[in-house]
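I hope you will forgive my troubling you with a question about protein structure. Could you please explain, in whatever detail you think fit, how the structure tokens follow from the sequence? Thank you for your consideration; the sequence and its tokens are set out here.
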Amino acid sequence: MTTKYTSEIFELLRRGQFICSNSPGNEIQTLYNVLEDQHTFEELQDYFLQINYKLEYGNEYFYFSRAEKTADLDRKLGKAFGWIDILDFLKTFDSSFDIGFRFTPAEIVNQLKNNADLKGKLDSLKRIGVEKKNHSERVKKLIEKLEKDNFVALENEITETYKVLTSFNYLKELVTSINIPEEIENEIPE
């Protein structure tokens, strides 16, 4: 019924991680290939559903979701707003920042020297825990957060080059799912 990789898949996804098609790690690639098989995916989906984990398939990534209590929804909304700010910062750094994009912390820090808009956006990330003394430390903290949440992966330790993973689609889909009706889009709040 289940695969020999069931426990590895569970352990990774239950921590809020993603299994991405373009992950540089061979172990993750193997797990992605296992889940990509429709029959295996459906079996595992049923299996995990019995323990209240819903196995989901995004745009070239897999993840767990769960039904949330109202109190948890408030926490999740706060986290979503933080991710929107991070996405805004990354797109300001480079408008082509997307899946497969490669970057180094030094490139971001370099651009901060000449881009006041980018500096302002980095400063606004303090409220979500990206607080450090200087720009270099803040950028490092931001990248650690992206790496911990499995949106980027260190591809080359020597050059400190990171690669954006397919799980980045999750953040993009989060933003595009926000619907602002046209009739209230241009209203000024009272």
Observations:
- The longest helix spans residues 70-93.
- Residues 85 and 124 are 8 Å apart (CA to CA).
